Amino acid sequence: MAVELGIVGLPNVGKSTLFNALTKAHAVVASYPFTTIEPNVGVVPVPDERLHNIAALVKPEKVVPSTLRVVDIAGLVKGASKGEGLGNQFLSHIRNVDAIAMVVRTFRDPDVPHVTPELDPVAGVETVQLELVLADLATVERRQEKTRGAAKARPADYEAELAALDSLHKRLNSGQPVHGQDLLPLEATLVRELSLLTAKPWIYVANVGEEDMPDGGLLIEPLQRLADSEGTELVLICAQCEAELGDWPAEEAAAYRQELGMQMPGLDRFISAGYRLLNLITFFTTTGGKEVRAWPIPRETSVLEAAGRIHTDMQRGFIRAEVVAYDNLMAAGSVAAARERGLVQVEGRDYIVQDGDIIHIRFNV
């Protein structure tokens, strides 16, 4: 299960630089708008110290982290939903992502022009949000037209759907994103079916200059107030710095981050924020000493559902799960020692997986 995150923002805010830093895919980066024409897609490992600590105990042949799939699309400008710039054709590339990371420029660089008269992070957010709302409005209107056509023959069958669509249309037409609103069951069903962009959770990623690390400088303050008012997480990252440090030896890169006042890599903070945004946790499996693997799942997932994420045969033939908490495994020093101490619990199909659980599924083939 790869968690998918769409990167959006105005042109020249550093989306592709961030993508490069995340994936090392070397997407084209240049200081003029619309360098990114086709979407860039990359899969990056999710950093998790626990995975490597478990591997140090088990000493497997293979270590497999959970992954984050990142989709970077062309910059959006005012009027994108109506075809300005490269138009809204690229919004279709992020309709199926799990969440959205909105990259906002707060760095100053005379060699990288910005597409607005003044560098105003809040205005940039408002422009992108409005284009997403307008794109959703167009999606709802197309569905309304189709449903009205079907309702001509059987009006009673489509009365409830038309009312739900009308409600969504009114919300979007007033400039409100769908995310965070109280929706009736049928409205929520239509939102999922239509893959509305503004229904997705999002975070703000402030792309700051290296000289403004670690606090972000003056332009961060209004953006932070906006994020706080919405209950949205704001992650500070110097995308250019992270892209360059990715080529440095690990120890030198860590030392330089310390000089900048960064306790951990900005990319790790970014990925961790995405996990929190999606309310995900991680469980681990060890396969006879051959492999240690991390698996992302939504919080409150049963062990039966978790077994299905590993393999459908495990879910179909589930007998029981043997579970040891991460802290208990570390304290015991090995799976065998954890068993001897009674730290490995036998759980049934209704057990709710906890973050950090190491799980072994017993099943019939």
Structure description:
The protein is of the alpha/beta class. Helices cover 40% and strands 19% of the residues. The protein is built from 13 helices and twelve strands. It has a six-stranded mixed beta sheet, with helices on both faces. A three-stranded mixed beta sheet has the order 3-9-8, with helices on both faces. Strands 11-10-12 form a three-stranded antiparallel beta sheet. A hairpin with a 3-residue loop joins strand 8 and strand 9. Helix 1 packs parallel to helix 7 and helix 3 packs antiparallel against helix 4. The longest helix has 31 residues. The radius of gyration is 23 Å and the shape is flat.
Highlighted features:
13 helices; three-stranded mixed β-sheet; 40% helix; flat; six-stranded mixed β-sheet; 365 residues; alpha/beta
List the helices and strands and how they pair.
Layout: E1 3-8, H1 15-23, E2 40-45, H2 49-58, E3 62-64, E4 67-72, E5 99-105, H3 121-151, H4 155-173, H5 185-194, E6 202-207, H6 220-230, E7 234-237, H7 239-245, H8 250-259, H9 266-277, E8 280-287, E9 291-298, H10 303-310, H11 312-316, E10 318-324, H12 326-332, H13 335-340, E11 345-347, E12 358-363
Parallel strand pairs: 1-4, 1-5, 3-9, 5-6, 6-7
Antiparallel strand pairs: 2-4, 8-9, 10-11, 10-12
